[in-house]
Write a structure and sequence with these properties.
Elements: E1 8-12, H1 17-29, E2 35-38, H2 48-51, E3 59-62, H3 76-89, E4 93-97, E5 111-118, H4 126-134, E6 140-146, H5 150-157, E7 167-172, H6 177-182, E8 191-194, H7 208-214, E9 225-231, H8 239-250, E10 254-260, H9 266-272, E11 278-283, H10 288-294, E12 297-298, H11 300-305, E13 310-313, E14 319-322, H12 324-336, E15 352-356, H13 360-371, E16 375-379, H14 383-393, E17 396-397, E18 410-413, E19 438-441, H15 450-457, E20 461-463, H16 465-481, H17 487-498
Helix pairs in contact: 8-17, 12-13, 12-16, 16-17
């Protein structure tokens, strides 16, 4: 199957025939060139004359059992009968599980996907399972297994290297996203994308829209360079939207992925994914300090802060660690703080600052502002971490419970409190806010956190995490590619993602390049 839009199989699963018909035509309008109908979702017996009327592209018939992650619960013999009926009815493809494939013979020109699903794990004998399936009468072999670690993606992707039969191999679950996107590096015939992601057809299944417009899946090939963001959680990150949009706009053959990596697995992850290889990482919660420790080559900001938010692969295969947050924090404050009565930019060295948190971002902010001679005080929920960071920076400290009793010019939230999806939380009581105070929240999803809303309501000047995010991402992009980042266009991308209703597309960045994420501001 040639590369292009047909390399994405659009999955449709609805209970009513009418909705299936509507989604088939809508998917075709959006560029679908291959559609899988999940017949196990239908509440009534399939009416093939309705489902296949005005068929806009090749279609796959699938009747998935509950044990394989589907909805079918009416008996195995009835299911096999339905599959045979679908084959005769006019479907172009049929998906048949490996354990029943030999009992359903090939019919005329209908192509066969022989599949194996394991919703619990990646089995130890995965290669043997694949080898056996390649010996069955298949046009395409499909393997879908549940990932628990990022290394599971690599085991699955290994199946795509010189297979005896064209193979689609992917991992389910949010840890399995890389396998769904990196198949084209090895020539997989297609991947799967949900037409309606909210239907929950399979855990971790990306939407057709995201595959096309965020990851530009149809343009991924063996020459594509891979980048990504490491974090836990990472699903909220807008970094893939931002970097992929700019790669596409500038014409760089690269893709940027989310990698959900638990705190204890960073070292193993970095070592195992050298096999891809990944050329650069953005690093976020909770890995910034660990990344600085693991990577031996640092720039000056990492040496000072012991925190890294960027890893760049060198020609020798090793990584260099950078901290683009450091410069971005200072640039953001200088640009966004209120002007003095004389109209001048304020001097950071004259400011009294409370930094909330003691993690990687707090460490960066504290070091950067201390170097600018600001009066910095650290407060976090863990007193031991507060004391350790304050001693490292050479600044003041306070207990978390005392944070409202100290007067400051600037409060900077470096905790994840208020981050999507926990948008109803704030690290400060609204009674603290006043005119003359600046509140800077480094959280950017949502942009208008509860902290920012309450500070604005009380008359405080506010700085959101969006400008910081764009500035640090632009510096990362330049480190990744050696190309100057289009900062204004990057800011437009993020503003549109966070405010899809109010921000209109422009000729400089058409809407087709940057679809809405559906993320809204906190109510």
């Amino acid at each position: 199957m040639a590369a292009g839009d047909e390399a994405i199989c659009v999955v449709i699963g609805r209970t009513r025939h009418q909705m299936v018909q509507i989604e088939i035509q809508e998917a075709a309008k959006q560029g679908a060139r291959l559609i899988e109908l999940r017949l196990d979702y239908l509440a009534k017996a399939p009416d093939f004359s309705r489902l296949l009327v005005d068929k806009p592209c090749p279609m796959i018939a699938t009747v998935r059992r509950i044990t394989d992650g589907g909805k079918w619960n009416s008996g195995e013999e009835a299911r096999k009968t339905l599959l045979r009926q679908a084959i005769v009815a006019g479907f172009d493809w049929v998906d048949i599980e490996t354990d029943v494939a030999d009992s359903i013979p090939r019919y005329k020109e209908v192509k066969r996907i022989i599949s194996y699903h394991n919703t619990r794990e990646v089995p130890q004998n995965l290669k043997e399972i694949h080898e056996k399936m390649c010996g069955q009468d298949a046009d395409v072999v499909k393997i879908a297994v549940r990932a628990h670690h990022q290394g599971d993606n690599l085991r699955v992707l290994d199946l795509l290297k010189n297979p005896k039969k064209p193979t689609v191999a992917l991992c389910m679950g949010d840890a399995g996203t890389p396998s769904r996107l990196l198949g084209p590096l090895y020539g997989t015939p297609f991947t799967y994308g949900a037409f309606n992601k909210e239907r929950g057809i399979a855990p971790g299944l990306l939407s057709f829209s995201d595959l096309k417009h965020v990851y530009h899946y149809e343009h991924i090939n063996p020459e594509t360079k891979v980048y990504g963001v490491i974090g836990d959680p990472v699903a909220h990150s807008l970094s893939p939207h931002l970097h992929n949009a700019v790669f596409r706009r500038i014409g760089i053959n690269a893709v940027y992925l989310p990698f959900r990596v638990p705190r204890s697995e960073l070292k193993a992850f970095l070592e195992s994914f050298e096999r891809i290889p990944v050329h650069g990482y953005s690093v976020t919660i909770p890995h910034k300090e660990a990344a600085a420790e693991l990577v031996k080559r640092h720039d000056a900001t990492v040496e000072e802060t012991h925190s890294a938010n960027t890893l760049v692969r060198s020609p020798d295969g090793t990584f260099t660690a950078y901290n683009t947050d450091y410069q971005a924090v200072l640039e953001t404050l200088r640009a966004e703080l209120p002007l003095t009565p004389d109209g001048d930019r304020p001097i950071l060295g004259s400011k009294v600052v409370i930094v909330l948190g003691a993690g990687g971002m707090a460490r960066t902010v504290a070091h950067a502002l201390h170097r600018e001679h600001a009066v910095v005080t650290i407060a976090s929920r863990t007193l031991e971490r507060t004391q350790k960071l304050a001693a490292e920076v050479g600044c003041r400290q306070m207990e978390w419970e005392a944070r409202h009793s100290s007067v400051a010019d600037i409060v900077i939230n470096c905790t994840p409190v208020g981050m999507h999806p926990n948008v109803d939380e704030s690290p400060m009581h609204p009674s603290y806010f006043r005119t003359g105070l600046t509140v800077f929240d480094t959280v950017y999803t949502p942009e208008t956190t509860l902290l920012i809303k309450e500070a604005r309501h009380r008359g405080s000047h506010t700085i959101t995490g969006v400008d910081l995010f764009v500035r640090q991402a632009a510096l990362q992009f330049e480190l990744f590619t050696g190309v100057q980042a289009p900062v204004d266009k990057m800011r437009l991308v993020i503003r549109r993602l966070l405010s899809p209703v109010t921000i209109k597309p422009t000729e400089e960045m058409p809407r087709g390049d940057v679809p809405s994420t559906g993320i809204r501001e906190a109510p």
